[in-house]
């Protein structure tokens, strides 16, 4: 796997981190999660920026969003008690399949 793909995957994971930190910040009223949000957001955007210089924009953005969306949804189900229905999990698997497909056809 090339460096651009590795950076893009890490930045997608950072998207999950900033999304969960945003929720934990309670509308930026809690300092620690607010700072974590800002740092992880900056890292995520920097990684996406690097990724799109080496990977086609549509592919890079879809992979980044897919990783962040699935990671955030799974975190919500595991840690926050969000619903974990079979239909919801199947939809998340469809996103994963799309992300993997985009990587394979790149």
UniProtKB/TrEMBL annotation:
GO terms for molecular function: transmembrane transporter activity. It is a multi-pass membrane protein. The keyword Nucleotide-binding does not apply. This is Quaternary ammonium compound-resistance protein SugE. One of its GO terms (cellular component) is plasma membrane. Belongs to the drug/metabolite transporter (DMT) superfamily. Small multidrug resistance (SMR) (TC 2.A.7.1) family. It is found in: Cell membrane. Keywords: Cell membrane, Membrane, Transmembrane, Transmembrane helix, Transport. InterPro entries: EmrE-like, Small_drug/metabolite_transptr, Small_multidrug_res. Its main location: membrane. The chain crosses the membrane at residues 35-53, 60-80, 86-105.
């Amino acid at each position: 796997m090339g460096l651009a793909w590795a950076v893009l995957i890490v930045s997608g994971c950072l998207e999950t981190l900033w999304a969960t930190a945003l929720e934990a910040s309670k509308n930026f009223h809690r300092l620690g999660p607010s700072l974590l949000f800002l740092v992880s957001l900056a890292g995520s955007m920097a990684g996406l920026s690097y990724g799109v210089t080496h990977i086609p924009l549509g592919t890079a953005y879809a992979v980044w969003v897919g990783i962040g969306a699935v990671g955030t949804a799974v975190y919500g189900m595991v840690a926050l008690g969000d619903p974990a229905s079979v239909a919801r999990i199947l939809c998340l698997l469809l996103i994963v399949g799309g992300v993997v497909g985009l990587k394979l056809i790149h």
